[in-house]
Amino acid sequence: MFTDIEGYTALMQKDELQALSIRKKHRDIFNTATGKCRGELIQYYGDGTLSIFKSSIDAIVCAIEMQRAFQEEPSIPVRIGVHLGDIIRTETDIIGDAVNIASRIESLAVAGSILISDKVNDDLRNQNDIETKYLDVFEFKNVNQTMPVFAIANEGIVVPELSEINGKTKERIGKSFKNFKRKAAIVLLILLGFIVTLLINRNGDGNNDTLKDLSIAVLPFDNMNYDDDSDVFTDGITEDIITHLSKIQHLQVISRASAMHYKNTEKSIRQIAKELDVNYILEGSVRVNNNQVRINANLVDASNDKNLWADNYDNNLVQIFKIQSDVSRDIANALQITLSDTEESRLSNEPTNNPEAYTVFKEAQMFLHRGGGKVEELKKAEDLFKRAIELDPNFCRAYVGVAETYLEYIFWGRESPKKMLELASKPALKALAINANDGGTFGALGAISYYKYDKETAILYLKKAIEINPSYVGAYNKLAWIYTFEGNLELMEENFNKVLKLDPLSPKYIGDMGQTYYYLREFQKAIDKMDEALKVFPKDNMLVWMKASNLSGLGKFQEAIDLYTARSVASNTNWMLGYCYGMVGNHEKARRILEYQLNKSELVYVPPYMIATIYMGLGDVENALTWLEKDYEVGGQGLFFWGLKQDIKFDVLKNEPRFQALLDKTP
User: Fold this and answer.
1) Secondary-structure percent of the chain, ordered helix, strand, coil, rounded to 5
2) Cβ(247)–Cβ(346) under 8 Å?
3) 3-class DSSP state for residue 233?
4) Rounded distance, CA 652 to CA 621, Å?
5) CA–CA distance from 126 to each of 131, 132, 348, 358, 397 (Å)?
6) Which regions does the record annotate with the repeat TPR (predicted)?
7) Of 191, 470, 192, whose CA–CA distance to 338 is shortest?
């Protein structure tokens, strides 16, 4: 907590005795209230204070008591700012980002007000005697993150107007997000109703199972129109239901990627549930006819194929969001469900009130989710997300879509990370300004921080994303990578196991886990994992590549070469194949691949790290270092640069000053 007396310096110049009297009253009130609330004074700053508390609640109770006392005559114009975070304590002071942020928040305050960060506000949600009001999202000077700021709104406490706020910030990035009034998505509340009913039935049977035991897969809804345009719309309905369900605490929701494997499947409900390891299946259909839409939903207990709930909903297509509100109200009333304020804000949020923008957005997602990193598909996704924004400038998820598209360019090595991160930051921050309670926004911001090597900020954002969307696969994936580069095998496996529980049929994430094992030098574990996955996906090029990469880690270069050349893509031009050829002494083939990659880099972006790797296979240390330095100049290839310290390919460079200089620039 930071406090200071507004206008104290001017008062000292005008009336020194009055100023000293006011400061004495300020300190007396401060000391009394702080001691009562388990606080500890760290330092006086002339007219201000820095203190710490055992909890956010203690700090806010103390701040309210102080402000009320300060307003008694003779009143003292005090500003207060509070933030929650880790600190480093010295003999005389405390330091850290949390201290800096608290100071910046206090600088926004006006006399009589108490401003707090979103982290403090989250801690206060269940405190009925403490009221807060959202102000805006701010980007603070010298702090590499944006932050929603709230004001304590209890009786007698001043809540500043935005026009009154002038503090240590950059230009404010956006205005207050909308307070959406409508209810949650259609089948979401159908399922919520089912959960409540199920719990009632379980309690009646004496069964003590809780929500945390529930797991569900939403199968792709059937398109009853059988045309491509309706197919995109229908898949969009499925995806939105998954997104909404993933916000429910204690409910494990299988990701879209794994669920879509069962589109048009002939497999039984029981077989699908067994393969996905879930207890319940939600299936349905969508029909669009002359601008009318009918949605059917059916919830099944997979253990006995028993239908637990089913219904149809009809309205015109323009009123698709009204359907959601009507169904939500009907189901909530029927089951006497009372949603908390948090559920209202996280589950009842309409993506947009513009049906055309929504349709364009779903088409953009289709191209983004195809995977494989094809530039033409990423470009289509980017253009469509931007078109959705043109149709609705307050479409938060469309801004997130733009940011995620730019991040895919980085993941697949299609563009300079430095360039793409600059492009991705702007829409991600805009999304945050529109809606500070969207999991996808924090996931995108976490990924951006991850690629920028800002580990602490990345963890903060990713954990916030998981708090909002407990089944957010991408956030667990990024956390797993961060713990990999910390050398923490236990936390890496914990997060990746969560990823694979939520997305069991995603070769991409299985391959990712294989690469993390590579950096942790658990090569055989990775090979075993890839062999297991290749039984399910025998021709998946990424899994084959990951197995070959780990074989190279064991020094089994010829076995790796056999796998690389057996792939259906880049079987003779892959950079790791070039490295392995070099390591077995076949320099001619290695140089052919090197020449191919060098020529390609003159036409399109090729991560310099890949070229450096081929030079390592050829034993050309100088050129390897040169290309690693080039890679850093363009922003680094994300995980590759994070992994330099642990990458066995570069062990021979550890005593090279140029290599050490690169390591000093990475986490």
Assistant:
1) 55, 15, 30
2) yes
3) helix
4) 9
5) 10, 12, 19, 34, 28
6) 473-506, 507-540
7) 192
Residues 6+ positions from 159 with CB-CB distance below 8 Å:
113, 133, 151, 152, 153
Q: Which residue has the tokens 């015109």?
A: 316
Helix (H) / strand (E) element for 42: namely strand 40-45
* Residue 471, helix vs strand vs coil: coil
- In the numeric block, the tokens 């890949």 are attached to 610
pLDDT, tens only, 102-141: 888 998 899 999 999 988 988 887 788 899 888 877 777 6
Q: At a CB cut-off of 8 Å and minimum separation 6, what does 605 contact?
A: 413, 414, 415, 416
CA 520 to chain centre: 24
Cα dihedral: 353, 402, 465, 115 (round 10): -70
Q: What's the confidence (pLDDT) of residue 90? A: 65
Quote the CA–CA distance of 557 and 608 in Å, as a whole number.
22
Strands annotated E in 180-248: 215-218, 222-223
Provide CB contacts within 8 A for 608, sequence distance 6+.
601, 627, 628, 630, 631, 634
**What distance in Å separates the CA atoms of residue 397 and residue 413, rounded to the nearest whole number?**
24
Look at residue 326 and tell me whether its pLDDT is greater than 60: no
| Interval 595-639: pLDDT, tens | 999 999 999 889 899 999 999 999 999 999 999 999 888 876 556
CB within 8 Å of 317: residues ≥ 6 apart: 288, 291, 292, 293, 355
Pull the structure tokens for residue 630.
């080039």
Contact 257, 512 (CB under 8 A): no
Which strand (E) or helix (H) includes residue 289? strand 280-289
Instruction: Give the model's confidence band at 208: pLDDT under 50 very low, under 70 low, under 90 confident, else very high.
Output: very low
DSSP assignment, residue 140? B
Cβ–Cβ contacts within 10 Å for residue 403, how many? 27
- For the record, the structure tokens of 372 come out as 């494989």
